[in-house]
Structures are given as C-alpha cells and as structure tokens.
Write a structure and sequence with these properties.
Elements (H helix, E strand, L loop, with lengths): L6 E4 L6 H12 L3 E3 H9 L3 H8 L1 H18 L3 E3 L8 H7 L4 E5 L2 H8 L12 H19 L2 E4 L5 H12 L5
Parallel strand pairs: 1-3, 1-4, 2-3, 4-5
C-alpha cells in the first residue's frame, strides 16, 4: 500500500475539502484524512481554541508538523487546512503530489461558511476578511496545484467528478 497521498486537497475554509475529500476517497477506494482533524485529535481541543489560547503562530507550527506527517504516511485522499499553504516548507513538500485546489468566489464562501460558524480568521466582517485572505492566498493555492476545480454552483458529487477528470483518475 502506498504511503504517498493519492490526492491532496487545498483551498479556503468552507470550500468543501472534507466533503469532496470523503467522496474522492470513496470513489478511489482509499482512506480519507484531514490534517485539521489530526491536530484536534492530538491537541484534544478545537482549532478555534488553539487560536484563542496560543495564537496563530502556535497553530501554524502544529499544522506544519501535521501536514508533513500526513504527506509522509497517508496513501489516500488528504485534505489540508485553508492556511497550510502559507508555509514555504509545506509548499515545497507538496511538489510532486497530485494537488487539487478547490476554488470558490466570495459570495459562495459567505453562503457556505455562514456568518455564525466558528472560523477564527473571519470573526469580524467575514466578507471583507475572506476577500483579504484570498488575495493573500490565491497565488499560493495556484502555485501548489496540479489542477484547479471551481466549486461555485456545483454539488459535491459534481466537484468530485471534476477533480477525478482533471487528474485523469479512474474510480476504483
């Protein structure tokens, strides 16, 4: 069994990495893993709590380690947290992997994430903050991506099919 991910999903919070990741794993006949889930399990607390208690730099250090470990030891579909691509070492580790950037526009992001969901980086003026986050991150998502799959107006099943097609992968 391979210890290299079949597919790595990147993209902003709320884009559907978890939902599409589970569908992709099912269609490919492999396991699914989410580095945010790994961090929560290891730390025994939510991502929001880590941000609030220790700050973003502490969370990013945990995230960097979680991504490195998952890239080295998971042979299925791997979803990364929205900000994982901020770290240059993480971006370098993604080179050579099949990386799908799931993209969406701001209106879709607001609709999907809602304005009351616990998203530490969107606490005040979510629409403006999401735009600013994407201005800072879009080029990094594109830099690591093997394929870009827009999610706007598409069902998770349609996004999954588009990702499989973009990577020229066959269902198991």
């Amino acid at each position: 069994m391979s210890t290299v991910p079949a597919v790595v999903l990147v993209g902003p919070m709320g884009v559907g990495k978890s939902t599409v990741g589970r569908l992709l794993a099912e269609r490919l006949g492999v396991g699914y893993r989410d580095t945010d889930d790994d961090i929560v399990a290891e730390q025994g607390r939510t991502i929001s709590d880590i941000f609030m208690d220790e700050g973003e730099p502490a969370f990013r250090a945990l995230e960097k380690r979680a991504v490195r470990d998952a890239l080295a030891g998971h042979g299925g579909v791997l979803a990364l947290g929205g900000g994982a691509i901020l770290d240059p070492d993480t971006r370098a580790l993604l080179a050579g992997h099949r990386v799908v950037y799931l993209s969406m526009d701001v209106d879709e992001a607001v609709r999907r994430t809602g304005l009351n969901v616990a998203r530490p980086l969107l606490a005040v003026n979510p629409r403006k903050q999401w735009r600013e986050l994407m201005e800072a991150r879009r080029h990094l998502y594109e830099e690591v991506a093997t394929a870009v799959v827009p999610t706007d107006g598409r069902t998770p099943e349609e996004v999954t099919r588009a990702a499989l097609d973009a990577l020229e992968l066959e269902e198991a």
